[in-house]
Design a protein that fits this description.
mainly alpha; 17 helices; about 5% strand; globular; cell membrane; Mem_transp_PIN-like; membrane; transport
């Protein structure tokens, strides 16, 4: 298949186009609702709270309610390792993009470039395009992200030592709890007590009887799983509405004139995912930590997200270039919203390469 055929295949794929339209359309809707004051400030905070404490944790947990096979396990472990390696690489290399800035600006911009909004911005898009497997991979990938975000990023931005309260905050995060619980249950399911369950293939409608772990609620308690799925399906629209509403509350004038914010956004949304692609391309070709198309696409989209809210909060809390951080948050969110459709198309084209099959 040549490039032209591949591009046509992607741009005519209804599910991909639907996911792109849903993402951008809902963000614009959230912007309009907040700008016209139909969505109040308190409502925006509620949307964010529901997304972070209910919808996203359930999205992560239910993605692990799936059979364990060797291929998926190998992919998951590769994604886990990549989720650690990539942040080590970004932490070391990203400050070099800002050598012309003073040390304080360079340190802050380095942290802001390394850490994106992979949970709030990335996971809903991955789920919309790649379904449960994409969510599983993104949840595993985020393990390394959270380790470094709550340790290195905090120490770098605060100038303080890591405290027990920050470690506690990290591990008591509902999304972290749901991810580790789901991952553990997924890994040990073949050793857990088994029960006979009736499983219906969602695509073909075929019905089979299989032994599954007793806690595999997708098979043993389909009514409970259906409820969890309903709540988890709120993650994408609520997150996108909140992103749009937050944009409506920001001051565009100064941010749009800030050249550093634009330069940062290019680095965060373009350069960082390119680094991810190059590294994975080279190592997969050498059969080192090889990944398939869904794993590659998940990691690239997670890398193409705007600055992490937690990182911006660090900048504000410790008075480290807080105005610059706010401007980068606004511009990178706009930049990422525009760029994500192109990244989805690019990774779909890469998926046609034999090494990512």
């Amino acid at each position: 298949m040549n490039i032209a055929d591949s591009i046509q295949k992607v741009v005519t794929n209804a599910s991909i186009i639907g996911a792109i339209v849903a993402t951008i359309g809902t963000i614009l809707l959230g912007y309009w609702l907040r700008k016209t004051d139909r969505l109040k400030d308190g409502a925006v905070k509620t949307l964010t709270t529901v997304t972070m404490t209910v919808a996203l944790p359930l999205l992560a947990f239910t993605s692990f309610m799936a059979p364990l096979n060797q291929k998926t396990l190998n992919q998951g472990m590769s994604v886990l390792v990549w989720g650690i390696i990539i942040y080590i690489i970004l932490i070391i290399t990203m400050p070099w993009l800002y050598v012309k800035y003073d040390k304080d600006q360079r340190d802050v911009l380095g942290v802001l470039t390394a850490f994106g909004s992979t949970t709030f911005f990335g996971m809903p898009i991955v789920g919309a395009v790649y379904g449960a497997k994409g969510i599983m991979y993104s949840s595993i990938f985020n393990i390394g992200y959270r380790i470094f975000l709550y340790s290195y990023a905090y120490i770098k931005m605060s100038g303080q030592q890591l405290k027990g309260e920050h470690i506690k905050k990290m591990f008591l995060n509902p999304i972290v709890i749901a991810t580790f619980l789901g991952l553990f249950l997924w890994l040990v399911q073949n050793a857990a007590p088994q029960v006979m369950a009736t499983i219906t293939n969602a695509k073909t409608g075929a019905v089979t009887h299989q032994n599954v772990a007793f806690y595999r609620i997708d098979a043993t308690l389909p009514w409970l799983n259906s409820w969890f799925k309903t709540l988890s399906s709120l993650a994408s629209p609520l997150a996108w509405l909140a992103i749009g509403a937050n944009l409506a509350q920001m001051s565009f004038g100064e941010a749009l004139k800030n050249k550093t914010a634009w330069y940062y956004s290019f680095n965060k949304v373009i350069i960082v995912p390119v680094v991810m692609i190059v590294l994975v391309f080279v190592t997969t070709a050498m059969n080192i930590l090889p990944v398939d198309h869904v794993a590659l696409a998940t990691m690239v989209i997670m890398m193409a997200t705007p600055v992490a809210t937690v990182a911006v909060n660090y900048a504000m809390a410790f008075n480290r270039q807080s105005l610059m951080a706010s401007n980068t948050s606004l511009i990178s969110t706009i930049f990422a919203t525009v760029a994500i459709p192109f990244w989805i198309i690019i990774v779909q084209l890469l998926g046609d390469m034999s090494m990512f099959k």
